[in-house]
Description:
There is one protein chain. It is built from 8 helices and 9 strands. The chain is an alpha/beta fold. The protein has one domain (15-268): NAD(P)-binding Rossmann-like Domain (Rossmann fold), CATH 3.40.50. The strands form 2 sheets. Strands 3-2-1-4-5-7-8 form a 7-stranded parallel β-sheet, sandwiched between helices. A two-stranded parallel sheet has the order 6-9. α1 crosses α5 (194-206) and α2 runs parallel beside α3 (147-166). The longest helix has 22 residues, at 93-114. The protein is globular and about 55 Å long. The N and C termini lie far apart (39 Å).
Amino acid sequence: MEPSAIMRPALVSHQRKVLLTGASGNLGRILVPALAEAGHHLTLTDRAPFPDPLPRNAAFFQADLTEQHGLCECPPDVTDIVHFGGINTEGPPEAIHAANIVGTLNVFEFARARRARVTFASSNHTIGFYPRSRPLTVADAYRPDGYYGLSKAYAELLGRLFYDKHGVESVHLRIASCVPEPTDLRHLSTWLSYPDFVRLVAAALTADAPGFAIVWGVSRNTRRWWSEDDAERIGYRPQDDAENFASRIHSESGNAVSLAFQGGSHCAMGFSRTDFEQE
């Protein structure tokens, strides 16, 4: 399904001037028409060209966020940065460092210079090595399941620093399984529907004085593992539940490691412990 054809919830318009990084990615392409319909003025950027027609109130420029001046073409009056740029899965540490650590630092420095709010695409992989039997809150310690999850934990801590030291507001969305519909047992706990994804980003953009916030990027799933975040404070109220698909889902692929931990397959990538016992 093309992102432009996805059913989207009606959004209350609090017009913002938004820079969206990673606009050409799958989730970026979902956000562009939704945010445009809500009346936001959009500046889009990515290393790859934007593949869809641009909405009337949107402009695009190509940029490499790892370059210190990669955002120099951005309009001076941007009010918000929705940062989805970078590598979106596990990869070599050198590549993750450049795209997700150096690139994100450059985005936060840009936000500091422009006094802009950052809505950041964090990840459930910041806590992936918790066992599936353990419910979590955002107060639980980080347990990243790879270099990708580690880079997202870094960005959350960067947001904490930039708020405490510079007053830069940021809302960190720990996005889980954002797919059209659940397809395996893990998704019954981790699914984030596309309409709830749009609601989540819209809430982060329009929240009144969020300061520093962390929100689980998950729908209102009956089997969800995660709670006690800043969702209510920013006004995020998910409406969809993976349980509606449970009758057709009976299994999940993967080895014992991926099936044991909340991060799933990311936990099994490069796993070399010989003393593994399921907690």
